[in-house]
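Subject: Re: docking follow-up (pyridoxal-5'-phosphate)

Dear J.,

Thanks for your patience while I sorted out the input files. As discussed at Tuesday's group meeting, I've set up the holo structure prediction with pyridoxal-5'-phosphate included as the bound ligand rather than trying to dock it afterwards. The sequence and the ligand SMILES I used are pasted below, so you can double-check that they match what you have on your end before we go further.
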Amino acid sequence: MKTIIEPFKIKSVEPIRMTTREEREVILREASFNVFKVAGRDVIIDLLTDSGTGAMSSEQWAAMMRADESYAGADSFFRFRKSVRDIMGYEQALPTHQGRASERILFKLIGEPGKVIPNNAHFDTTRANVEDSGSEAIDLPIEEAKNSSSNHPFKGNMNVPALEALIERVGADRIPLVMVTVTNNSGGGQPVSLENLRQVRAVCDKHNLPMFLDACRFAENAWFIHQREPGQEGRSVREIVREMFDMCDGATISAKKDGLVNIGGVLLIRDEELFQRASTSLILTEGFVTYGGLAGRDLDAMAQGFQEVVEHDYLSYRIRSTEYLGTRLLDAGIQIVEPAGGHAIFIDAGKFCPHIEPEHFPGQAVACGLFRYGGIRASEIGSVMFGGEGRPRPNMELVRLAIPRRTYTQSHIDYVIEATVELFQDRDKLKGLRIVEEPPSLRHFQARFEEI
Ligand SMILES: *Cc1c(COP(=O)(O)O)cnc(C)c1O
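The structure tokens for the complex came back this morning:
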């Protein structure tokens, strides 16, 4: 088989400012060993997140010029709604500025103290919005999700017996809805199978519960179904996406991922009464129902992005290029969370530098090392992000290399591989860190460190 190439040509370029190892040493110290404090211009390859960092197509830029900025009933809104009807099959759609705005509106309406929201794994903002409503957020991943070297094809699946046990324990009347995150972000971008979605749906039907998707990476999830699920290879991603959404009663979506835009989100609700209440809440804080806190041009960019993200050439390149990075790291002896996820590769930092104890943040040490060696920015997903006073230590110490969509070429990724392998060869020299200053919450964004 030939190389799967980037299915696009480059029309507009953005220079990368090259830095030397010495310059990066100074930058890292000035940032107190926290890459969130490094300026974007000082980064060579930025793998901090795949959210809102992708490149738009020429058709998206053209759509932005055609946009209608009318306050109410803009053409841009009708094109957005037409695209959502076409891809997701929902008649009604509310635009929001990003995923968490959709979450806030939804959980403010349905959540309250005493209520419980099950999910295969809550994304951090989803959990925060559930908890802010007074409800309890409960993660129900399958067992394989906890093992970094398990090659289960659908490691994002929800643990269905655990869901049934939870409903049994707390009672269906305390569960306003069951949520399934596709792909499972916290679990490494791992997909959920159609079979698992059908099983969750059956449990919801039995107890008369609504089922919602956190559908940020719906197209990547559908591609994995197309590739891995028996009997699905002959179906198009469009068909699979439609089946995923048809099964549900609503969805929250961050279009900064599979909407292929830099800002935007969607809230889908089938229930007419709940939809009306959500519309009122949207107007209160986001904007009128036909723009939801966005410019008309953002709606047009989303409308076009949803059409492009389900193309097989795009998805095959997208998933293959993420897997390429993962395979090459594994070949070099670097343990990653297997199998490779859709949008990111997670390095197992605990195994990368076993001489650094979790309390000295191996993930942070690797993230600092990647910046030193290659000017690469990645985020720690381990004891810095999840630890702290009174919180249990996470299962794994990870470093996430998130891949922005359509932004870097294979040679950029080859460079990332070379720098990571070089760091791995020097891993004995990596030093642990200690926190010298931290804010009361979400400390990974702001904390200052020193090397031990
Ligand atoms: C990014 C993300 C969100 C939140 O979306 P924002 O646009 O960042 O507010 C929610 N859930 C998942 C799974 C995500 O990846």
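A couple of observations from a first look. The chain has a mean pLDDT of 95. The chain has two domains: 21-50+312-451, 58-308.

Let me know if you'd like me to rerun anything.

Best regards,
T.
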